[in-house]
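User: what does the whole thing look like in 3D?
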Amino acid sequence: MVEQTDIRVVRCGGSKICFSTPILTNDSRFLICASGDSVKVFSTRTEECVHVLHGHANQVTGVALNPANHLQVYSCSLDGTVRLWDFIDGILIKTFTVGYKISSIYVSNKHIGVIFIILPMQSNENGEHFQLVAVRLPSALEQELEARELSAVLSDVSPVPACTAFGQGGDYIASAKGLQLCVYFFRKQKTYRFKLKATDKKGARNAFTCVACHPKDDCIATGHQDGKIRLWRNFNQKKEYTYSTQHWHHNAVSALCFSPEGMHLLSGGVESVLVQWHCKEVNKKNFLPRLGGAIAHICVSPDGQMYSTSHTNNKITIISSFRVSAVIQGLVKGGSVQTDLMIDPRTKALVLNGKPGHLQFYSLERDKQLYSLDIVQQEYIYQAGLDQFEVVKAALDGTASWLATVEQRGSKISSLEFSLKLWSFNEKAQSFELNTTITAPHQNMITAMCFSPAMDTTMLVTVAKDDQFKVWLLGSDLDEQKKQASWSCEHLGSYHGLQPTNCCFSGDGSLLAVSFAEVVTLWSPDTWELLTTLCQPPGTIEDLCFGRLSCSKYLLGTTTKNLLCWNLLTCALEWSTSMDVCVLRTDPLSENVAAFCHNSGKTDLFVFRPSEPRPLFTQKAVCVGRVQRCIFVPREDPLDSCDEWSQWLNRSRLHFLTEQMELLTFSTRAEDERILNSRKELLVDDSVAMTPFYLLLGKHRQQQQEKQTSVPSQAADRAQLPQGCVAIRELLHTPAHVLPPASFLCSVFLNSLLISNTGGRDEKELPEQEVDSEKEEVDSEEEMEMNNGPQGVRTQGSVGEAPPSLSRAEEKELRRLRKTDFSWVTSLTSS
Amino acid sequence: MGEFTVHRVRFFHYMPSAVRALAFQPQRQKIAVARTDGSLEILNRADHLFQEKVIPGREQRGTEALAWAGQRLFSAGLNGELVEYDMQELREKYRLDASGGPVWTLTCNPQGTRLAVGCEDGTVKLFEVCDDGIQFERNLAKQKGRILSLSWHPSGSRLVAGMAGVIWVFDAGTGQSVHRLLVERGTGAPRSKECVVWSVVCLSDGTIVSGDSSGNVKVWDGDTGTLIRNHQVTKWDVLALSVSQDETSLVAGTSEGTVVQFQHLSVVLGREDKEWVQTRTFKNHTHDVRAVLELDTAVVSGGMDTQLVVRPLLDKIDVKTSASALRKIHFPHRRLVSCSRTNLPPLSRPSRGTRALQLAGEEHICCSALSPCGGWVVVSTVTNLRLYRLQCDETISITKVTNQICFSSDSSYLFTASTCSSVHVLALSQSGCTFVCTLKPKSCSGQAILLLTASDDGKWLAAANADHEVQVYNLQKRKAYCTVPVYSSGVTAMSINPATNNLFMVHADQQIFEFSLEQKQYTDWSRLVHRKGLHPQWLERDTPVTNVTFSPRNPAHVILHDMYMFCIIDQTLVRLPSVAKLVNQLTLRSLPEKERRAHSHAFKICKTFKELLFVELLEDQSLVVIERPLLDITAQLPPPVRQKKFAT
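Assistant: Here's the predicted 3D structure for the full assembly of 1479 residues, as structure tokens:
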């Protein structure tokens, strides 16, 4: 049992970045957003994730800039803590424990040292009623503090963060719930409540959806269920309050935001159009259409230069001067992943449904979407109730040179439209290109599809509800019109008019198993001859897979009640066990098979080998609800755990998708420790040199001063060997947006190359290569300071460790090299 | 109650004309409504917006502008004449040519002493309001182009005039122009199309607000002549502006049929500096809104779609009552149709049904009547009265000013109401009609008579006038008999019960009275009704009862109707509707027997028919119902301005 605790379920990226309203920093350089149980800091220019602020133990529900210090950010979470971070360095400064689930956070310049959070009412803990609470943050110096000084401001508020907003100058706070708008004035300590009727004769739906306050005037903008925007004024009177109504959105307004000077009001909704209203001229408005996804949040930078819109498909669009300037795309998770999870062996990316009509390639390592492949190639219309093409099936062949997709529209057979598309990988363009489109490849919808793993043939098998399976082959003969070979149907098979459910190739491609209702049929792909049938009633076969490697003689199948294993040599059932398997997957690199079993609302995991009766690993209650999909992802560097329980994780990781569309994985203790160590290392590094940028620039400055005082010594020259490698690493591994100008880097880079190669054998050849490359650099960067480069590296080297001794000959050679090098380049630049 | 055979009649193509101007008299709470056919209506805001007086118009004399000068009402039109009205006699007092071509606008200064008239030739003429008329005072500096809108500064020292493309500010003392404010075309408007200032309003702090044809409401600083704010309200024209008395709210009527409200609000709460902020938009009209009035607690608007809409501003009203609901006035608050109880078809005015009477002359009809025997038709204009025999179309012309006409039950006498609340009695015979006598009230208030009704036995005649007084005359003695106690609200319909000779009256506040003529006091039934009180739903109805008749079979059944329903009151049933719910007959029928008895009451209400003009029960228990569907009226209107509708 002790061993079992070694392996735990962890989130592995792909979490929502559109969960709460992000914030843009004062200088609009960074965007800070909540992502799962961490806070991510993105660069607004390069779209790169700069920092991930780990620390919260549950979903982060809100972020807010510290009004006292614009380089710090508060974050609140459902784990009941508020944390203060330095987002520039990614350091946790303080942790305030509140002790209740916090659903949002608000700060104001007028209330420094006080934050406003929304908590569930103490009276009922089941979390239906919420209140707005002011929390005075203790100012003690400790890192972990308890914030117990709570005072209720408004009771019965909406837990939705967008429904509450601070008013002009922080004098009042406005909050809407249902059909009621509350405005609380802090000075008078008085609440005004304004009610709307639920509907009227014209069918208005007046429920509030969001609130925003004008930063300069006393004006509250509210968004409504039917797409209206109301601008409230005079709300410090019970009766003589007034509002004007604007209507553009055809569906609920989900986000509202005023620009910092109050000149514009931004609104967004499901139409995926950002609307900019002019506050002074009510009828004038600008539109930014086709943002590609329903807008969930809008955020404006404090200088008003930059907007950001968060979309429900896990995307943040950064808009500067009312044009899209950058897109931060997370893992797109719709209602369900209809295609299976796949791994692109080329990029090691996870392939699944992306935004409507697309396949996304998501890098699990970098937690970033690599690219999105447009399958349907039709404009998606964001409107409820429309039946549009969706990618329902996708399959990659073993080398990822072919991709097969099925897109489908309509669920009834009468209105069903679907087509099979085959994509070939173009090495030159490094992307998939459409090769063949087969409209209506079957009479009814395709239920399963797989490529043959055999190396010599490219073969695709599709199984459909029209009681047939079809085999598609890449044509060998070239057409006159077309340059490429295209796919065509090779064979059509059926079995007693039964409906096929699934298909699977054996590991070497020599056998094809197709399950027809309760019967598994085995076919030879060479002759298309039915070899044998396997049957184990009752229950329709749902999932089917062959064992791998040494277990390749076994065929596994699942029914709703049983897990079955046949021995193909004896054509008899080897063993069967009674369990409700939702997902069955084999590890391509080992004999292991993972089976997720649904058991009374929870899902258990069994990892086993078909040949052995005892499971390698079991874990009860991996998650709540059914597991939707799972996949084994090969590791880049295998673990060397010899522990029996965690051995199955050595070569690949198991990722799985839950009912709540959370992507989870298993992590061993060794792995955890490794990550922890690397993080500590990073922290130590940071304490020595803050950032690579600082490192380079700071050293450059030092060196400049030193240059005037002292002539570089010979010994310093030699010290560059190990440091040079560091420079290269920094150059290659630092994100581009934090790098100093290329004019600095060039010299560092060149020098590092130069020294590292001095130990090499062909010393005579090298200088010329060096010079060549440097010449190119000089051409491109004309303002490069010639004399600074090598010296900069020299001093940098002297900081580090003692110079290693070099032989006299080497030293002499070096000196000679240096001289020629300089004169050559200076003459070149002067000419 | 039984069932009736219904004659559902739609041949009366009554067509109201568009509202052109509105004016409000704050002391007596009267709203004057000018329509494009030149007729004038006076609504009393204190009395449930009851249409107290109607002054008929004339052909070719459309009214363009209205102005109250104290209690006196002036109007001006494109024929270039100024008209003052006699509010007691309900006719024009005099006409005066302004001698500047067609008059586009007319305003009176807040003191009520001077009238300013904007003319086609570009002059603004000032008239002094004297006791017996108006006197030309002076011309202000003449401009090029017509003056389309005028507004006085509340102090009366300045006058703002709107023209095509320019607003002039005049000093009323010297007559010289002080400022010239150029109103530019809206962006994208063609060069040839000039921006016409349809309406201007001058506020007491010198701010000038203008509404123009490019759809802008512009706020100007009147002292410096600079534009402060521009509100683009519509793509079409802003036609009318009106500001509230305390100058905190301003409304603008547009061609789209919307009324836009602006409020003078402090931008930051608690601070003094205020701005005009566009707040609410009311969309109650389908066509151009030609006239608006902001009355502090309500916005009154009227336009091309002929209806008058009173939209309450709920934030200014403390208690929600029937008076604070949205009201739309479509039809006149009078009976337009009379019906003979013999089996002849009913006659309407101006009738185009079975047989239309073409009347010579350009004056509009002010009232008409059909004799109970069905043989006589009488039609009156402001200046003359014509009597027709239905068989031979013989006309007998009598030149007398008449406000109301009524026949005696046996069709032998004709009663015509005349000046000074007097009633002329004319005897009808086959050869013609002869004047019999004049009935005069005991105390003459001088107000015009609005309603006349004679008893079935020919003994009594009741006359109600605009001062809410009801005089009863004894026709046998031919002199005044008594006066019904004066009630605070005007009488909208009355009739004398043929069996008991009780005078049945319905007032504008929906109260019902029954007055016994013999005993000269209210009947027991009437007292009972008032002790118990009427049902709140009955009192909340917003159209007045326009006709009261009695069932010929059973005179205890009183039939009355308003625009949306007709009701039969069974006077024998003492049971009044319970407070809980006023159930109408249709829902009553659907209830089970036991509940039906519990819910049944003396008021039998039927809402089957829409937009009723007239309901009458004939001798043979058949019901004549005259409908005028509003859709038919809308269909006859010119098409409204084109508007983009979502998803079209």
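In plain terms: Residues 471 and 483 of chain B are 5 Å apart (CA to CA). The interface with chain A takes residues 229-233, 263, 265-270, 277-281, 315-316, 318, 646-647 of chain B (CB under 8 Å).
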